[in-house]
User: Fold this.
Amino acid sequence: MNDTTGRFDSEVVALLSMALGARDSTRLEKGSNPIWYRRVESQTESSQASLRISAANWAKTISHDLLSAPEAGRKDITIQQHDFTTLKTTKRYDLCLTSPPYMNRLDYVVAHLPELSVLQHLIPFNLDQLRSDMIGTTRAVRKYHTEQTEGWGDRCRETLNSIYNHASYASQRYYYHIHADYFRRLSATILQLARLMKDRAEGIVVLQDSFYKDIKIPTPQICAEMLNNAGFESSIVRTTSVKAHMGRLSPAQTLYAPEKILGESVVYFSR
Assistant:
């Protein structure tokens, strides 16, 4: 809060510094699943960084970066926090750049509890509701049937059918519905894009494929097919191999797919 230049918003710098400092000063430990985290119950002063010191260090770093950065060319930028699929607006947009949560069943809300603990003082939210609303949620979801996937594309339906018919425990009654819910939310997002994007609009979606047991889930290809079905022209323009990922930490995953290499893809779309 000690900025004397007046060139940027001190309160925003302070808030961001507190959020990043909270991440530094909170000790988390992994649970039985490699991508699950929980708070360490017993913490000592010597085992964690002071929030005050960490936030102050982040503030210095951010302030230095802002002072050395070029002047922004536009001053009318606004940032809104909203569920995109239910956004009500008459505006139309030229460009979309997005990377939704991947289909890796990572609980993004729990993974970012330190930052959310700071933000909740400005943007009140219900933690359980936020976890339920997230695309790729790890919470139990409502049941789906194969006929409800109409319009999601052949690749998506084939993948869901493979999961549904997999011989492993709970494939039909649980994991099928988890994956179907993810693609339902992805489809709803793309249909909203079709409504909000202008003619000649274009965009990029960054997604990563994943596995269910030994079944590869080609999320980027499914997304491209959904975009085509929604009236866009789309294609995967680049894919980068991801060899280091959470799936390699799971003994069960290495049993089903010992040589698993994921791909992070850039999906380009336009009208």
Observations:
- The CA atoms of residues 99 and 206 lie 5 Å apart.
